[in-house]
Amino acid sequence: MAVTRPDEPPPGLIASVRAVGREPEAVHAGQRWGFGAFLLVEAVFILSAVFITAVARTSGMDLGSSVSFVLIGSMVPTVLAAAVAVTITYLRGNGPFQDLRLAWDWADVKVGLKLGALGLVLTYVAAVIWSKVVGDKNATSAIGELVDGAGLPLGAAVAMFVYVCFLGPVCEEVIYRGLLWGAIERQRWSRWAAFVLTTLIFAASHLEPLRTSLLIVIALPIGIARLITRRLTASVVAHVINNFLPGLTLLLVSVGVMPA
């Protein structure tokens, strides 16, 4: 089998999967952050979500139907946590482009597009099966429940679409398949270990217990993109593609173009 450099993906999707061995990836010199950094970022995510919820309750807001609460409560903790993750790489490492493997490569984009398309198919099949097992409502996310049968102001609908399809995927990839994956690399564990752990923790971190197994299925192609290319760009693209049709559907439903 041909030997490739750590930052050079093997040719072809199937060949790339077969080429993934049990060896750990090389850690960048100067990376002085690990699991502690990830735990700090997760603490920022959880505490900011708790703080927003507490403020909303104190103000007497109806948490189940408030557009502002669902949008702010979904966006702010994730964006804030990703910003802290990026800041850590500057303060304790070489910056996000090196430490989080954010180098741009058109080959990674192609891999991300292929696996993102595969993810759409898996997501649809898994959602259909899941809805039959647990019921339609239990398979719906918090944002999905908000727009179910109700209209949103145009500005809120567009903000929701941008977050679900673009901003959210980028931030989540920075946190899980960037920072967490890098922390696992620093322990010299295998890439398969990084793939499995980041997939499970990503699913559990959404704090939606009923949907955790569905989220694991959704996360598999995204994690594979990171696994075989060894860079974050492919998983970001796969995540964006995976979220695009669901996000577009939510947008069209929320503004009344499509029936709920």
UniProtKB/TrEMBL annotation:
It comes from the Bacteria. The chain crosses the membrane at residues 33-56, 68-91, 111-130, 150-168, 189-207, 213-229, 236-258. One of its GO terms (biological process) is CAAX-box protein maturation. InterPro entries: Rce1/LyrA-like_dom (IPR003675). Residues 157-245 form the CAAX prenyl protease 2/Lysostaphin resistance protein A-like domain. PANTHER family: CAAX AMINO TERMINAL PROTEASE, CAAX AMINO TERMINAL PROTEASE FAMILY PROTEIN. This is CAAX prenyl protease 2/Lysostaphin resistance protein A-like domain-containing protein.
